[in-house]
Design brief:
Layout lengths: L2 E13 L10 E17 L4 E4 L2 E4 L8 H13 L7 E7 L9 H16 L6 H16 L5 H5 L6 E4 L3 E4 L7 E6 L6 H14 L1 H22 L5 H17 L4 H12 L4 E5 L6 E6 L2 H13 L4 E6 L1
Parallel strand pairs: 3-5
Antiparallel strand pairs: 1-2, 2-5, 2-6, 3-4, 6-7, 8-10, 8-11, 9-10
Helix pairs in contact: 1-2, 1-3, 2-3, 5-6, 6-7
This protein binds (R)-mevalonate.
């Protein structure tokens, strides 16, 4: 039977979430420990099989509105809008945890549909189609998630301006801790937008502070001294907290990580739940940090070598 397969990895924002929406630089890393795999095959109607729904795509629940949009835009782009397919999505990327699940799923769906028609989308087409899904899922997406899910290398990104893939020279380990609470990117992005209208001087100040921390982190990643990266992460968490993006579950894991010896710790992604990052020097310390986070109610943990 003819099939098309698309695979996309998750992502971690090392620094610069939220401020990236307002044109500040951010650094994101492809996170290959988790990924979305979509398989497309022939069918006499358009159906989807994923954790949220198994049946006609047109009957899918509201949280799959972005999937409906990306499938129809992709079919249209390929000139195949009259065709029907069976779309099966299998993903190990925790949903709504700041790991770019929605962008990765959209990306894998686009690639799988293209593959089914023996085609490969270029990066720009893939980005544009993924952004259709992101705009529905997130409201005002900076494009960072859609870009990094296409990338094999870390990205230094400024919305609409710069997208530089680079290699990290610095040696160290990032431990990812999942609070087990769904993050709420769209609500957090909207809430920050409202706060900015009420108090532009304070919020713009924090946005710029985060932008500078991303710049500093970029040079630190090119060097050999790990401690300053931890300092930037702590300062970024402080700015994000003052913006109102953190929450109790994130604060608890971040505090536990710091007490447990992390060189720095911060939330990652949209906030208001989701995941946090802790920086350690060695793999042994990273494994120990995983234990500390699990003892402090993390739902799961991962380790990523920088
Ligand atoms: C979400 O993963 C990252 C945010 O900066 C939103 C965006 O960049 O679109 C919070």
């Amino acid at each position: 039977m003819k099939t098309g397969i698309g695979i996309a990895n998750g992502k971690l924002i090392l620094i610069g979430e939220h401020s990236v929406v307002y044109g500040m630089p951010a650094i994101a890393i492809p996170f290959k420990e988790v990924r979305a795999i979509t398989t497309v095959s022939a069918s006499d109607s358009m159906t989807v099989n994923c954790i949220y729904h198994n049946g006609f795509l047109s009957d899918a629940p509201k949280q799959l509105e972005n999937l409906q949009a990306v499938v129809s835009a992709t079919m249209e782009r390929l000139g195949e809008s009259e065709q029907s397919l069976r779309i099966e999505i299998d993903s190990t990327i925790p949903v709504e945890r700041g790991m770019g699940s929605s962008a990765a799923v959209a990306n894998s769906v686009v690639k799988a549909i293209y593959a089914y028609y023996d085609q490969v989308p270029d990066d720009e087409t893939l980005f544009e189609l993924t952004q259709i899904s992101e705009a529905i899922a997130h409201g005002n997406p900076s494009g960072l998630d859609a870009r990094v899910t296409v990338s094999d290398r870390p990205l230094y990104y400024i919305r609409g301006k710069t997208m530089e893939a680079f290699d990290i020279h610095l040696k160290g380990y990032i431990v990812v801790g999942d609070t087990g609470e769904n993050g709420q990117t769209m609500l957090a992005v909207n809430a920050l937008g409202e706060r900015r209208k009420m108090d532009p001087a304070v919020i713009d100040g924090l946005i710029h502070e985060l932008g500078e921390l991303s710049e500093r982190s970029k040079s630190i990643l090119a060097g050999e001294d790990l401690e300053p990266l931890g300092v930037c992460m702590d300062l970024a968490q402080d700015a994000l907290s003052r913006m109102g993006i953190s929450n109790g579950a994130l604060d608890h894991l971040i505090e536990a990580a710091r007490i447990g010896g992390a060189l720095g710790a911060k939330l990652t992604g949209g906030g208001w739940g989701g995941c946090m990052l802790a920086l350690t020097k060695s793999l042994g310390e990273a494994r120990q940090m995983e234990k500390i986070l699990m003892q402090n109610n993390a739902k799961q943990t991962w380790v990523l070598a920088l």
